[in-house]
Amino acid sequence: MAGAGAFAEIIEGDVFNYYADGEWKKSSSGKSVSIVNPTTRKTQYKVQACTQEEVNKVMEAAKSAQRLWAKTPLWKRAELLHKAAAILKEHRAPIAEALVKEIAKPAKDSVTEVVRSGDLISYTAEEGVRILGEGKFLVSDSFPGNERTKYCLSSKIPLGVVLAIPPFNYPVNLAVSKIGPALIAGNSLVLKPPTQGAVACLHMVHCFHLAGFPKGLISCITGKGSEIGDFLTMHPGVNCISFTGGDTGIAISKKAGMIPLQMELGGKDACIVLDDADLDLAASNIVKGAFSYSGQRCTAVKIVLVIDSVADALVEKVNSKVAKLTVGSPEDDSDITPVVSESSANFIEGLISDAKQKGATFCQEYRREGNLIWPLVLDHVKPEMRIAWEEPFGPVLPVVRVATVEEGIHHCNASNFGLQGCVFTKDINKAILIGDAMETGTVQINSAPARGPDHFPFQGIKDSGIGSQGITNSINMMTKVKTTVINLPSPTYAMG
Ligand SMILES: NC(=O)C1=CN([C@@H]2O[C@H](COP(=O)(O)OP(=O)(O)OC[C@H]3O[C@@H](n4cnc5c(N)ncnc54)[C@H](OP(=O)(O)O)[C@@H]3O)[C@@H](O)[C@H]2O)C=CC1
Ligand SMILES: O=C(O)[C@H](O)COP(=O)(O)O
């Protein structure tokens, strides 16, 4: 059970503590933030509402802990990460339970998220040992006018304090995808978890605590992003921000100082289906892509652009698969579960009403109970409808029928997002040409968009982000290059 057994010390009364200086603490604010269960719509948990003074202390501790950590041998950092990964996997049950209650993620997917996170940490430790153990050696005589009198040694060194802010939909996985790379590279880490998902994150942080990381190296500050977010992101003690979420990331990018930013933001992932596509393959990927975790994935298929001649057949296949999706509670492992909040359900409903007014074809009856929205396919969506451009982050899939592939590519590229996209065709040559023409960070050929496997590069262009994630890229992003040049008194050439 959440907050019990090995996790008993992280809760006091009915409020979960925050984590600073290697201890679980109550905030001096005397205030807490409620976490509402999306299914019951009642308060499930409470977390501390941390103060600015507490943030200042955490930043100071992070700075001094980092100085010692950067001097800890790389293999020892890796060893501790492996230990944390094992503890996290061992305690997957209570963490998954928190995910079910806080973000209504289906029970099995919640367990998968925790296990995947353990694997991500272990892989990060291994990758870090490989890539951080290597540097570069340059000699001067390759540049015109120089003789071989200078040896340049370059290596990767830590940035300092990394601030990690993950979103609600993968609170544990998208937290460790920042924590692991930051720590292996010799940085310290301050985590601001999403409010929905904070309790799962606190449990995950306790696994790092149990692994024995030094005091102050990892901290977890809880509180509403709207209240404490600006103070954190503009804090002078922060040397790097790794953020995943919505438009908030655009605002943070404008306010943050001259520090490296890793931003993974929203998407409107387009799925282009050609007339020669395997329609069964396309339909199953579209349904999985659009409706997994009720569409609350940045990589969800958020618009289908299908060639007219196969549109009827594709929509029929999609609809017959949608009819088989189970709708209900995350505890029952239903395919479709309540969306994260009432305001999110209202937003999705707004997009659906707009499409209705403007003449979209409803393939299923629109149904909503509380935060639970039944899966819905909207056919004959037109560019004047909001759903053609906006990200619903819910179980609704717009289908736009296009006359040509060019029209499909044009719609994809007219979006202000550019996260992922996919194309279904049996012709690999066409797939490559279309993939290259789609202005997105990744294009999947004959499969739905996906971030994983977690070591693949993952990035968005335009409003979908800055930089690239994925284990290797994140480690590199959380380091800077240091060079030492050895100046020799006379040219020297080694003989064989
Ligand atoms: N490209 C990608 O990899 C992914 C993108 N996303 C995108 O994220 C969105 C959904 O996630 P959601 O959690 O609602 O996104 P939000 O942008 O609302 O929140 C993300 C995180 O930012 C925090 N936050 C809120 N306000 C501030 C602030 N002023 N300063 C600093 N931090 C702040 C939130 O805390 P709090 O919860 O307390 O408000 C949360 O931890 C979608 O648009 C989705 O596409 C999601 C997953 C992956
Ligand atoms: O937050 C998201 O939506 C994830 O980054 C998507 O991850 P997935 O493609 O592995 O589900």
UniProtKB/TrEMBL annotation:
Keywords: Cytoplasm, NADP, Oxidoreductase. The active site is at E264. One of its GO terms (cellular component) is cytoplasm. It is found in: Cytoplasm. Residues 24-483 form the Aldehyde dehydrogenase domain. Belongs to the aldehyde dehydrogenase family. This is NADP-dependent glyceraldehyde-3-phosphate dehydrogenase.
